[in-house]
Amino acid sequence: MKKILLSLILSFGILTNAQKTGVVIGATVAATAVTFLAANAAKKETAKQISQFRSKEYIINQIIGDAGNREIKFETESLASDDSGGLISVAFNCDEVNEKGLLLAFFGENRDSNGNLGNAYAFRYLPLDEAKSVLERLEKVREENSKYLSESSNVNNVYIQHKDIKFVFYRDFGNQIRVFWNGFEVIWEQTAFDRTKRRLNKWFKS
User: Integer distance in angstroms from the first to the last C-alpha of the chain?
Assistant: First the structure.
């Protein structure tokens, strides 16, 4: 009984602090943790925070890990961002831990543990070779099914999956990719997708 009471007190303390800072961490942890935003959070400023600052927090905590007494150098660059919600892509490289790849920030509506819908974000990391393979496959699927998709907008769809990420291709005033992952359902616009693929390849060649 004492342990249960202590757990409730700690949970209340964490929730109270989260409400003061404007974010609430979801029930899942580590690589699939979802951060819920304050209801009045401005999407444009939040997108900038995600791509430039929260991505670094994720990288040091979930990819690099404990630094100990070391000084660890790493590089990041925002490749493409959607201010209104969607997928934000960030390139990452750290020679000292032999990790490099693509960080996808899902930014949009999600449901918390109580079933309430709210704006949130979460990160999905793809090591470089895997990221390139996924992007190549997505581009190939889009090209090979272009005729089918253009025959009937918002009617014809193509569905593929990569591990825990699901993609649906369709046409709605242009090519669209709807992406489903960890409770998120976001749109990866063609311009943002093309920019991500092009800049990722260019960034790792330099």
Answer: 59
Question: Domain tally for the chain?
Answer: 1
> Is-contact 194 205, C-beta < 8 A?
no
105: helix, coil or strand?
Answer: strand
Please tell me the distance from the alpha carbon of residue 56 to that of residue 59, in angstroms, as a whole number: 5
Type of residue found at 162: H
The stretch 104-114 carries a mean pLDDT of 94
CA-nearest of 138, 132, 119 to 91 is 132
Q: CA dihedral in degrees (130, 177, 92, 109; nearest 10)?
A: -120
pTM, two decimal places: 0.82
The DSSP code sequence of 122-191 is EEEEEEHHHHHHHHHHHHHHHHHTHHHHHHSTTT--EEEEETTEEEEEEESSSEEEEEEETTEEEEEEHH
Domain that holds residue 101: 2-205
- Alpha-carbon dihedral of residues 34, 46, 172, 188, nearest 10 degrees? -60
Q: What is the mean pLDDT of the chain?
A: 85
DSSP readout, 21-42?
HTEEE-S--GGG--EEEPTT--
Q: pLDDT tens-digit profile of 54-100?
A: 999 999 999 999 999 999 999 999 999 877 778 999 999 999 999 99
- The rounded percent of the chain whose pLDDT value lies above 70 is 84
